[in-house]
């Protein structure tokens, strides 16, 4: 999910950057067009300033009116240039502020997502720890049950072993008695003379 969010943010920033470059290109075109128009007006002003078309070899009234008209156009063009530069700088400031706000929002959003993920991981760790404690307790109970059953089995084994040894001894005693009895019956009995 983080990767998708980061990818979306990068895509948005790239798209905004492309639009900003187009707008910036248009602004630069407008500024260069205004500058070239101003340069043409300055050339026109210099041309009229050099005109000496009066009878006396000085500037005529018409030349002076042309100069004044050209200076008015230059002033108007300068005003347009100042307005365009101001508009461009305001636009750049606004774009910078918007990008800063977006980055701030993305940072806050990323931080919230990070905190949510941390809290979910902490709760998962607590759940796993409690499950582990339960399993450990169950394991201890089972081990004590195994030990108790082993002790019971071992106790029974002891009793069985003692009884088996006792039965073996009795068997040996019975065999010994049988052999003795057979020996006693095999000996000729002396008849008693009465």
Structural key phrases:
194 residues; 2 helices
Structural features, described:
The chain is an all-alpha fold and 194 residues long. It is built from two helices and no strands. The model has no long low-confidence stretch (mean pLDDT 82).
- How many angstroms separate the termini? 122 Å
How many E strands?
0
User: Which secondary-structure class do the elements indicate?
Assistant: mainly alpha
What is the beta-strand fraction?
A: under 5%
Number of helices: 2
Radius of gyration from the CA trace? Answer: 57 Å
Q: pLDDT under 50 segments (min length 5)?
A: none
Quaternary structure type? single chain
Could you describe the largest sheet, including whether it forms a barrel? Answer: none
Secondary-structure element pattern, one letter each: HH
Calculate the mean pLDDT score and round it: 82
Helix content: over 70%
Shape: rod-shaped
């Amino acid at each position: 999910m983080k990767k998708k969010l980061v990818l979306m943010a990068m895509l948005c920033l790239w798209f905004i950057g492309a639009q900003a470059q187009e707008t910036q290109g248009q602004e630069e075109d407008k500024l260069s067009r205004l500058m070239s128009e101003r340069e043409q007006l300055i050339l026109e002003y210099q041309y009229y300033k050099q005109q000496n078309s009066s009878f006396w070899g000085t500037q005529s009234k018409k030349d002076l009116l042309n100069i004044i008209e050209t200076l008015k156009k230059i002033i108007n063009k300068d005003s347009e240039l100042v307005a365009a530069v101001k508009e461009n700088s305001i636009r750049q400031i606004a774009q910078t502020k918007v990008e800063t706000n977006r980055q701030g929002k993305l940072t806050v959003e990323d931080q919230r997502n990070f905190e949510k993920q941390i809290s979910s991981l902490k709760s998962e760790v607590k759940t796993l720890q409690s499950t582990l404690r339960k399993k450990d307790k169950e394991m201890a109970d089972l081990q004590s049950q195994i030990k108790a059953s082993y002790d019971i089995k071992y106790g029974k084994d002891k009793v069985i072993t003692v009884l088996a040894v006792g039965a073996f001894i009795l068997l040996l005693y019975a065999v010994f008695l049988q052999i003795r009895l057979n020996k006693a019956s095999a000996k000729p009995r002396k008849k008693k003379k009465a």
